[in-house]
Amino acid sequence: MSRLGDLILLERSRQKLTRKQVARKCGVSESYLKDVEEGRRIIQDDQARRILKTLGTSQRNEAEFSLDEIAATVDLSTLAPKPVAPAPQPKPAEPKPAVRQQTSEEQSGIWLDALSSVLKPVPVMNAGWIQVSRRMVPIQDGKIEGAKPDKVVYFLAPDDSMRAMRIEKGDLVLIVPQTLPIDGAIMLVEYGAHRCLRRIKLLGNSNILLQSGDRELGAESVHISDVKLVGKAVRVEIAL
Question: 219 Cβ partners below 8 Å, 6+ apart?
């Protein structure tokens, strides 16, 4: 069972709601909700928000994450340990210390720990290789797009040099590690002291063609030793 599923199940059970009742209110099937609670399904942001809102939870804006990054946040105060009445003792019980309330940082840590098994914060890097933000990405079988989560990055397209390949300025391109050229793949390369996206074409004799284009295709032939291949583009999220 995933920790996110644990939280949904715990909140549903606390309110004495059946799975069927919650599923009907959220517009999902009972089997879908069962898979989420038992950790067999990666839940999408909108579905998570709908389910948790139905359960009476609220979104929380953490110091390190924006609301856009967090699918939804359980009211963690309901998970705080409740004082347990001491059993009768033959002698007077000693005074109990005051119960310390959890700080917002501690509650944030509990929620982020719950998310860690299903979501991973992926850094967004600009052309200068400076992190400008982060995006939460689902993890499947401990990996993101088949790669180790800590090796994956988003690249913020700096211009329209790849518009011919449907990548425009401001789009986010998910990059997985790849140091060998792949014919026909769009890859993040370091060339001429710049990081940029280019489509790769193998020419033979250790030469490759770097293809780009705003409205028309352009290309430059280079020796493979003159280019550092950082990774392969696997997904594009457009800027609206």
Answer: 201, 209, 210, 211, 212
